[in-house]
Structure formats: C-alpha cells, structure tokens
Amino acid sequence: MMNLAELIDQQIERDRRRGFPVDFDQEKERVDQMMRDLVGLLGEVGEFANLLKKVGLGQTTPRYAGPKLIDVKSALREELADAAIYVFRLATILGADLEQDVVEKMRKNDERYRSLDD
Q1: pLDDT at 18 (0 to 100)
Q2: What pLDDT, in 10s, does the model give residues 73-118?
Q3: Is the dihedral angle over the CA atoms 103, 108, 114, 115 positive or is it negative?
C-alpha cells in the first residue's frame, strides 16, 4: 500500500505524461488552471451528491424507485476517487505538501475538539 505522498506523485506524473498542466511559470496560468480544476472537483462532488440524493429519496419517498446504497457504493467510491485526484492536482499546483497539511489539520482539530474526546 502506498502512502498519500506516493499516490499524489504517481497521479501527477500521469497528468504530466498525458499533457494535463500542473507546472506553471506565471501566476495567471496557475490561477486559471486552479479554477478549471476547482470546477472539475465540484463536478465530481456534485455527481457524488446527486447519486446519494437518489439513494436517500429511495429511502424516504414512497413510490420513488431510487437505488439502494449497496448497488451504488462502487459508483460513489469512484466519484470520491475522482474528487481526490482533483484535490491532488490543486495541492500540487499550490506547491503544497498535502500529506503534511492533513496531518497538521488533524492536530489542530484535536486541539479544537479535545472537549469532545472521551
């Protein structure tokens, strides 16, 4: 199993090889690509939300023949993976160390929510 940094490195290498830009000399190009990737990220999250909405409607709305969670679990996981790839790209374009940033955010959340721990 790979760690997060290795996953990001492999995805970004694939993006570069396929001609999807992640390296920029000018801030305007960087910001433009980040906006495009943000739209992509929101699209993937929207696809996840729409599918989950249909599952929920199937559980709460009589006569609505929505899918069961078990039947769409794979599709939901794929949408999350797509969203993660966009997050990897955005972090890379920013020059971030996403793995370290997540660890630091978890530490801050530990402090913030300490009173909720048992």
Answers
A1: 98
A2: 999 999 999 999 999 999 999 999 999 999 999 999 999 999 999 8
A3: negative
CATH class held by domain 27-108: mainly alpha
- By CB atoms closer than 10 A (0-12, 13-18, 19+), residue 30 is middle
Encoding tokens for residue 71?
């039947």
Q: Any idea where the domains of the chain sit in the sequence?
A: 27-108
CB 93 within 8 A of CB 22: yes
DSSP string of the chain? ---HHHHHHHHHHHHHHHT-----SSHHHHHHHHHHHHHHHHHHHHHHHHHHHHHHHHHHSTT--PPPHHHHHHHHHHHHHHHHHHHHHHHHHHT--HHHHHHHHHHHHHHHTGGG--
What is the reported pLDDT for 1? 87
95: left (phi over 0), alpha (psi -120 to 50) or beta: left
